[in-house]
Amino acid sequence: MKTSLEVFINLMIEFIKRPRQVAALCPETQKCVQTFLRYIDFASIRSIVEWGPGTGMLTRYILRHKRENTLYIGIETNPRFFATLQFYSHKFPNTFFYHDDILKTSLYLSQHELEKADIIVSTIPLSFLEYKRIIQLAARIGEKYLQYIYILTLLRGFWPASIFQENFYNVEIDFCVYNCPPFFLFVASSSKFTPHAPAGMRAQLF
Hints:
Elements: H1 4-17, H2 30-37, E1 47-51, H3 57-65, E2 71-75, H4 79-91, E3 95-98, H5 105-111, E4 119-122, H6 131-141, E5 144-150, H7 151-155, H8 161-167, E6 170-176, E7 183-189, E8 202-203
Parallel strand pairs: 1-2, 1-4, 2-3, 4-5
Antiparallel strand pairs: 5-7, 6-7, 6-8
Helix pairs in contact: 2-3
């Protein structure tokens, strides 16, 4: 398992090589991780898909909290990050990583005899990608979708709230200031009833 310094160096290298795939120079902070985790009901979910696990900062917490019989699928396009993530597939049961495009997620779900995942967790830089297509895909193959958006992308005029509202029954937005850079977390659900974080932690920013 890599040290924090090694993780940071890897992230720096990949940011320089692939700035459109790596959205930040710093790994997620623990506050960032906690923002994600409070929207994941580990006691009830049976399948988790993570888009862009990257250096594994969020991944390791997900895998530590998930039940042994809960399926985890991580899809990573970056070859360096993908090689590093293999450590977790050997350490945690029912954990699989695929070096591929997230648009092929349905293929990997079907390999595990699933049509939809209980939750999709995404830290990919949505503003650099075909975000409408990705959000529509998440609505089609996921019961719940967590997607972060860095505040810097908002300053550039990128704000996909209306696309989320068009594709999901319920959409909420949280905000984490204790990260570099700070980010918004979109929490979208395909069903009417979905677990929420404490009311004081949410922000309705439409």
